[in-house]
Design brief:
By secondary structure, the protein is α+β, with helices and mostly antiparallel strands. The protein has a domain of 68 residues: Arc Repressor Mutant, subunit A (Orthogonal Bundle), CATH 1.10.10.10. It is built from 4 helices and 3 strands. A hairpin with a 2-residue loop joins strand 2 and strand 3. The protein starts with 13 loop residues before the first helix and ends in a 19-residue tail after the last strand.
């Protein structure tokens, strides 16, 4: 079952963005098109050894990121931004290991 969340569109200021790590900027740059991306694409774009940590960082900045599995492949898609951490708000997809 897909859940729909009501959120107010929120854009970070340039000052906020400048404080982000290079990996977080690269992940946001990839996911901001709101299309599905394979886990390997995220790894290639960020150079991260642990992509789930970078996804979590972006979620703490307010990104709503869904992930889904298809066989052995994992796909990620950002569907929006909110003003508060989606981790502390508990906004996760059913696939995430941090889901309730």
């Amino acid at each position: 079952m897909t859940q729909t969340y009501m959120f107010t569109p929120y854009m970070r200021t340039p000052e906020d963005f400048e404080r982000w790590s290079k990996q977080r900027k690269a992940l946001f740059g990839l996911l901001k098109d709101m299309h599905l991306h394979r886990r390997e694409e995220l790894l290639d774009a960020t150079g991260a050894l642990n992509i789930t940590a970078v996804v979590s960082e972006l979620r703490h900045q307010g990104a709503i990121i869904e992930c889904t599995r298809n066989g052995k492949q994992i796909y990620y898609r950002m569907t929006g931004m909110v003003e508060s951490s989606t981790v502390t708000e508990g906004i996760h997809c059913a696939t995430c290991r941090c889901s309730a």
